[in-house]
Amino acid sequence: MSGGDTGGRLVRPFTLTGGRTRPSRADFTLITTVTAVDPPPERAPRPQPEQLRILRMCAEPVAVAELAARLDLPVSVVVILLCDLLEAGRITARAPRPVTRTTPDLDLLEKVRDGLGRL
Amino acid sequence: MAGSDRAARTPTAPDTVKILIAGGFGVGKTTMVGSVSEIAPLRTEEPLTVAGLDVDDLAGIEEKRATTVALDFGRITIGPDLVLYLFGTPGQQRFWFMWDDLAVGALGAVVLLDVRRPRASFAALDFFERRGIPFVVGVNGFFGRHPYPPERIRDALALPEDVQVLLCDARERGSCRDVLLALIDQLIAAAVRDDGTGRLTRRTR
Prior knowledge:
The complex is a heterodimer.
Chain A: H1 12-15, E1 33-36, H2 49-57, E2 62-63, H3 64-71, H4 75-87, E3 91-94, H5 106-117
Antiparallel strand pairs in A: 1-2, 1-3
Chain B: E1 15-22, H1 29-36, E2 42-47, H2 61-66, E3 68-79, E4 82-88, H3 97-103, E5 106-113, H4 122-131, E6 135-140, H5 150-157, E7 165-168, H6 173-195
Parallel strand pairs in B: 1-4, 1-5, 5-6, 6-7
Antiparallel strand pairs in B: 2-3, 3-4
């Protein structure tokens, strides 16, 4: 877990994003899963070091929140980096399973129950 | 890393769902997340700017440094195609705005309660009740003590009959699992009830 020293951290990460503070895409939630595209598309722009770290971490599918925690960066910053990677075709993003109150998904609930039962 | 079957190398991502672990400050949320998570609880810290405060102005950085909110979360792999995330909601009142974002798409919530200071969790109960988000109440017995039976706690909190109240120990994996199971059972019961047939209409396994 990250330590208590946050001094200066909140300024620096946004320098990674070229000063942008808002993602161009709103489709990254905390539990959106991202996966590096393998092999990378030809003529993809060279990723910057933080993006390379992300690409290594999501060789296997990983949730945005986990990426942020492992990179020790705010989720909002990671999302901006992910937007660029998505636009460059370097990653795929899978949205969370939709959950609605009006039409509950019994199959899903039973699957979760069975899975928890095995804990 | 050239391979013959290149297109197929990108692994398929699993579906993801989440459950919130809520309650007042210090009721055991992170402990519970850690007890059932297959990974050590992770923490991500967000500057409050994500809530829509203007971040273009770099003046007042001192204030921004003070206003971060930590989110602790854990993971339970249900199967190869489904992963459950548990998010401990920030306990302090000033961070409630984050709950709305967190609540979007959540299956439901566990509201943890410390009977020695139940008021600390009242706000969490109100939050989920008002928004119609399903929840169960986990009464975290500190030092393993449970001075009140669940029914008395339900009455004291004026909870509806369909909201389960469970005595638990946030340090115990099995106990936390049972609370989560109770939430899922409650969701299934509500789904079946709403279905109107009174019974499961789809395959049970």
